[in-house]
Amino acid sequence: HPVHDEPLRGRRVVVTAGGTREALDPVRFLGNRSSGRQGIALARAARQAGADVHLILGTLETEPPASDEGISLEHIESAQQLGAAVAEASAECDMLIMAAAVADFRPLTVGESKIKKTDDGQDPTITLTRNPDILAETVAARSRTGKGPTVIVGFAAETGDAEHDPVDLAGQKLQRKGCDLLVLNQVGTDLVFGREDTEVHILASQQSQQVLGAEPLTVAGSKTRAAQAVVAQASRLL
Ligand code: C5P
């Protein structure tokens, strides 16, 4: 292969994909409908670009990459496990792509035994607590230590409303999170979740705009196409 076909040759890329499960008791959990397709497509796009790829997988509604695809796999369940896996893997990587749908909340306590129906007919109450924001923490750790991924890519699913344009909301999220690129999935109709095709807007931080320009890049089509565009933009920041 000519070198320009493999812009990520010799680079290490960490991708997170899928959903998380937050245990309620030994048999029950809170989860989400992330299929993992977009994250897996990103891992494949990075591999195709020549990178050494580590894929951290939560819950999936699709097949993970096969062992002969040359992508190293790690399975996690909860947001806290994902946080630990990202902290470890991102210490030594050039690019982190956080495509996983991370639970914002988890049950405050996890029952040691199965939660039982009570005889008095009372409805049980589940108290939730905030999960750490892994993306924001990775960005903060990089600023604090000067180490970590050169390029950090976050994702956002926004519907927008009458007063708020989803792209504006995503721009605010990009600033809040402090990542270098933010990929906006416009959700609300029957778009995105579990689907093969998608439409994404790739937004660049102020600093990244010096390389990529100020205008968000919009890509419509397959999740593979969207993934290739995200990887191409992120590669230009290395
Ligand atoms: O704030 P919001 O959940 O919309 O942000 C989405 C982005 O933040 C995604 O890249 C997701 O992987 C990441 N995230 C995270 N830790 C959380 C929640 C979201 O890293 N607890």
UniProtKB/TrEMBL annotation:
Key word Flavoprotein present: yes
Top-level taxonomic group: Bacteria
Region (Phosphopantothenate--cysteine ligase): 13-238
Catalytic activity, reaction form: (R)-4'-phosphopantothenate + L-cysteine + CTP = N-[(R)-4-phosphopantothenoyl]-L-cysteine + CMP + diphosphate + H(+); N-[(R)-4-phosphopantothenoyl]-L-cysteine + H(+) = (R)-4'-phosphopantetheine + CO2
Pathway connected to this protein: Cofactor biosynthesis; coenzyme A biosynthesis; CoA from (R)-pantothenate: step 3/5; Cofactor biosynthesis; coenzyme A biosynthesis; CoA from (R)-pantothenate: step 2/5
Family: In the N-terminal section; belongs to the HFCD (homo-oligomeric flavin containing Cys decarboxylase) superfamily.
Function per UniProt: Catalyzes two steps in the biosynthesis of coenzyme A. In the first step cysteine is conjugated to 4'-phosphopantothenate to form 4-phosphopantothenoylcysteine, in the latter compound is decarboxylated to form 4'-phosphopantotheine.
Protein name in the entry: Coenzyme A biosynthesis bifunctional protein CoaBC
UniProt gene name: coaBC
Shown stretch of the complete protein: 190 to 427 of 427
